[in-house]
Write a structure and sequence with these properties.
Layout: E1 13-14, H1 15-22, E2 25-26, E3 35-36, E4 38-39, E5 49-53, H2 59-64, E6 69-72, E7 85-88, H3 92-103, H4 105-108, E8 125-126, E9 131-132, E10 137-138, E11 143-144, E12 149-150, E13 155-156, E14 161-162, E15 167-168, E16 173-174, E17 179-180, E18 183-185, E19 190-191, E20 196-197, E21 204-205, E22 212-213, E23 220-222, E24 227-228, E25 233-234, E26 242-244, E27 249-250, E28 255-256, E29 261-262, E30 267-268, E31 273-274, E32 279-280, E33 285-286, E34 291-292, E35 297-298, E36 303-304, E37 309-310, E38 319-321, E39 326-327, H5 328-348
Parallel strand pairs: 4-5, 5-6, 6-7, 8-11, 9-12, 10-13, 11-14, 12-15, 13-16, 14-17, 15-18, 16-19, 17-20, 18-23, 19-24, 20-25, 23-26, 24-27, 25-28, 26-29, 27-30, 28-31, 29-32, 30-33, 31-34, 32-35, 33-36, 34-37, 36-38
Antiparallel strand pairs: 1-3, 2-7, 21-22, 38-39
Length: about 350
Amino acid sequence: MADNRFFSTRGPLSLGEIALKIGGNLAKGVDETLTVEGVAPLDLAGPRDLSFLDNPKYATAFERTRAGACIVHPRLASRAPEGLLLILSEQPYRAYALAAQMFHPEEATGGDTYGERGVIHAGSIVHPSARLGEDVTIEPGAVIGAGVEIGRGTMVGANASVAKGCTIGKNCFIGPNVTVSHAHIGDRVILHPGVRIGQDGFGFAMGLPRHEKVPQLGRVIVQDDVEIGANSTIDRGAGPDTVVGEGTKIDNLVQIGHNVEIGRGCIIVAQTGVAGSAKLGDFVVLAAQVGVTGHLTINSGAQIAARGAVVHDVPPGQQYGGVPAKPIAEWRREVVELRKLGRRKKQSGDSGE
């Protein structure tokens, strides 16, 4: 069970309403009126908890679990211990996510930090011309600039700053110490603590006698249902806008340069950097520590393995890896050949000197 000092829990909930919400089916003989009180992993769950099994690697934990109910793929249902109530799903992990949102709806939208929702705290500073919707929360130390518009149900965390003219949609979470400037933020967007949106792009006319700063005159457009992890930074455009497409999820410590266009449903993992004017299509995946050179295109559905260095366009739906990034099968062959070469050198006594 989640620690109630930090997480509020709604429940108990019946297995029938959970199955309906997650698109699952109760196993034969399961009473839909039976209830559970929360969610927990297989090894920690108790008789009043709902758990899940998605990865067959954890089938042994499934066989030993003390959970009262479990979401599982039909092909693994036969391995359930006696008495375990099953909800069958073709996508158990996704179904678990939806169930967890039922018990913890506030966490699905970012939660809160001060503990009071729907309050404009006296310790905040809100410009008289700012327009705030119903049930907006402004926590202590937050600063809301002139002409800002914030939609219904949005929370702005402690010491966050929303600069003049920015708009933020409905039911957003703007975490503590976030700064937003020169930006329009959609609905249901989550910005975790320390996120920076809309600061200058890194634009300079290089040369003697000195590098001249190029005014960055674009904006950042963050579309609906985007989530951006702690201490990630997204620079505003130099003239065109920097755009983050609907439903994209960005991990912690990611840098997005000016004029970058990111499509819908992309996944960008920690410590990745995307240089200026690069374009990502829809549902692109960049694994951890990927580097993307500016002014290129990674087309829709492409995936880049961790630490890949992308220096050329990537075709749609392709998997690339390595430095420089290349089709992943080619990269793997090269790795194997290098290992073979190393073994041959070792066997021949060639030190390479």
